[in-house]
Amino acid sequence: MKTYVWDVRNYVNDLSTYPQITEIIQGFKQDELISIPTETVYGLAANAKSEAAVSKIYTAKGRPSDNPLIVHIYDQQQLDFVQDIHPSAQQLMDYFWPGPISFILPLKRDSLAPKVTAGKETVAVRMPNDQVARQLLELCGLPLAAPSANLSGRPSPTNYHHVYEDLEGRIYGIVRGDDSEIGLESTVLDCSQYPFKIARPGAVTETMLNDIVPGCTTAADYTDEGAPIAPGMKYRHYAPKSPVELIEGGITQPYEVAENIAVVGPKSIESLIMGGTFYPLCEDEHDFKGAAAHLYEVLRSIDHNDAISQIVISGFKRQEQTDALMNRIDKASAGK
């Protein structure tokens, strides 16, 4: 299969003027798979109301069939496939959308392709803030199911090159925009019962949610081994080819490693590393946003170094600000 690439970086302010925009929109309407940029990571998008289109997502990614997808919308008026939205959930959606948070809501029967929800009676929905993604959603007029645009289990893609590396020849096309700003997948909030529960941590934290609706969340459990209600919960995710070891609490004293080991951490610890190859992740142990934005890029770059057979990551202090970052590192190291 030929994979088309549409570079829209010079048309971000008005995507309708891009010469090949009709080709992209028709692709969605003809049940094709198209990768799109978002502020979190690049997504692999398809018509969420077409079982044929959604089936292609699972095939292209090699994704387990019980792992549900997130549906992306442009406007809340498109929420004709959900029902019985809790008033507090509505309040949170009104405040945080568009943005990096997905809400798990009760699904209307027979309103979406069954594979979107992996047979569940709820669906995760997000309204992205990325300018290109929003215009594509508006122009095609469809709710788009869009997991990360990578092979299942691999580090998520934060730029066009990552998508092309994993999915060239497997999908219809890639919309090339800017690199993803946040670099980690969205927060997923389970609103199927009250108080709500964070099913996957992201840029929108529990404190931020409770600042808007006090007492709206209960303690999260990211180790739930049941059937996943949101992406990124059950399986080993975000993982490079080499095994990953996490140094809990971070490297704080001289650390000697063999030459075949990559050490990942803040630039501030580089002087402590003896041997191996050091890959800077951010400026220092307080630069959580920098670490989140560059984690997948660094893990993928290590994959291109054939001399590396193991990765050591200097961990960050576990606190609310690092929940999402440490969750992804835990998953990459096959931690629970």
Structural account:
It is found in: Cytoplasm. ATP binds at residues 63, 67, 148, 156, 200, 238. This protein is an alpha/beta fold. It folds into two domains: 4-218, DHBP synthase, CATH 3.90.870.10; 244-332, 3-Layer(aba) Sandwich (Rossmann fold), CATH 3.40.50. Helix content is 24%, strand content 19%. The chain is built from eight helices and 17 strands. The chain has helices spanning 21-29, 51-61, 87-96, 131-140, 160-167, 206-212, 288-303, 323-332; strands at residues 4-7, 34-36, 43-47, 70-72, 101-106, 122-126, 144-145, 173-176, 187-190, 196-200, 217-218, 244-247, 255-256, 261-265, 273-274, 277-280, 310-314. The strands form three sheets. An eleven-stranded mixed beta sheet has the order 1-8-2-3-7-4-6-5-9-10-11, with helices on both faces. Strands 12-17-14-16 form a four-stranded parallel beta sheet. Strand 2 (34-36) and strand 3 (43-47) form a beta hairpin. It is globular and about 55 Å long. The two termini are 37 Å apart. The model has no long low-confidence stretch (mean pLDDT 94).
How does the SSE layout of this entry go?
Layout: E1 4-7, H1 21-29, E2 34-36, E3 43-47, H2 51-61, E4 70-72, H3 87-96, E5 101-106, E6 122-126, H4 131-140, E7 144-145, H5 160-167, E8 173-176, E9 187-190, E10 196-200, H6 206-212, E11 217-218, E12 244-247, E13 255-256, E14 261-265, E15 273-274, E16 277-280, H7 288-303, E17 310-314, H8 323-332
Strand and helix order: EHEEHEHEEHEHEEEHEEEEEEHEH
Total number of beta strands: 17
Measured distance between first and last alpha carbons: 37 Å
Number of helical segments?
A: 8
Structure class: alpha/beta
Catalytic activity: L-threonine + hydrogencarbonate + ATP = L-threonylcarbamoyladenylate + diphosphate + H2O
Subcellular location: Cytoplasm
Binding site for ATP: 63, 67, 148, 156, 200, 238
Keywords: ATP-binding, Cytoplasm, Nucleotide-binding, Nucleotidyltransferase, Transferase, tRNA processing
